[in-house]
Amino acid sequence: MPSQSSSFMKGMILGALFCVFLSLLESLSPGSSTELHQHHHVRAPSKVDLQGLSEAKKLELSQKMQVYCAIMVQPKILAFWATANNTWAKHCDKAVYYTSEPDKALEAVDLHEKDEWLRVRKALIHTFQNAGEMRWFFLAKATTFAIIENLKLLLLDKDSSQPFYLGRAVKSGQLEYIEYNSGVVLSYQALRQLVLAFQDPLKCPEQGHSLWKLSLEKELALCLKYGGVFAENGEDFQGKMLFNSKNINGLISDSRAKNPTNVVEGCCSDMAITFTGMSPSQMQVMMFGVYRLRPYGHIFHDSLIFMPPEGSDND
């Protein structure tokens, strides 16, 4: 009798494990709608594309292109928080910080949530509810350095009423997702569909899609895919990556190893949008190089100018 009981219990445990395994496969499977998806490489317009626009159209595009930056912070990385606030975040049309707990040093929305995935969900809901006239959204960590004007160039000819979800696209099995450390871009329609998915526990459960905890970026991709929104890779008009998972030093080292005769050309795009893995002091140096250092008398032949937000003290 004890032997039969033991065999029964083993069978129950094996059956339960098999069900869990199937559940995990189900959550990571793209499903029938995803199988029809053709991966796109979303590219920024070229100089030729911009030259073909009328002056009136250029002015219209430059004025209406606004980006809401949702920046995730924590008191334990206060130095990054302060650095982002004093550097690249000033170039966002609206920058809102979201935190897990209050801190008197800087203003942020306290979400009262320790779990990172639940915190990002709450932040994105708050972003959608407070979007106003904003139609493009940039989700980033305070440890990411971003060049917002280059992001606006990438989005310039894109339609925010279409479900765009882009950044540095990574593939894990059959699931494609956007790398969180390099920044995540959402159109208004993509964010709208995501917030609707949050309301459906079958499509986007608060505790995740499987018993094995997935990374935040994969959970986000799974919630978006149920609404028909898929990860797209952001590139310049030459096909170079715009969202980088390394800092400048790392990118140059990689280029030197792969292409020692042309390190700069092989390193990264002239219109790069994000870099990661930098210290606060390195971010300050990046700010100096990007916005303040310039050759006197040199004229850049840019087709249009993105004006800073009203009342901003950006560089």
Structural summary, described in words:
The structure is a single chain. The protein has twelve helices and twelve strands. Residues 8-39 have low confidence and may be disordered. The protein is globular and about 55 Å long. The chain is α/β, with parallel strands linked by helices and 315 residues long. Helices cover 41% and strands 15% of the residues. The longest helix has 27 residues, at 2-28. The strands form three sheets. The protein has an eight-stranded mixed β-sheet, sandwiched between helices. A two-stranded antiparallel ribbon has the order 6-12. Strands 8-9 form a two-stranded antiparallel ribbon.
Assembly form of the protein: single chain
Question: From the alpha-carbon coordinates, what is the Rg to the nearest angstrom?
Answer: 22 Å
Strand order of the largest sheet: 1-11-7-10-5-2-3-4
SSE string, helices as H and strands as E: HHEHHEHEEHEEHEEEEHHEHHEH
Calculate the mean pLDDT score and round it: 83
Number of strands: 12
Sheet bearing the most strands, described? 8 strands, mixed
Amino- and carboxy-terminal Cα gap: 79 Å
List keywords for this structure.
two-stranded antiparallel sheet
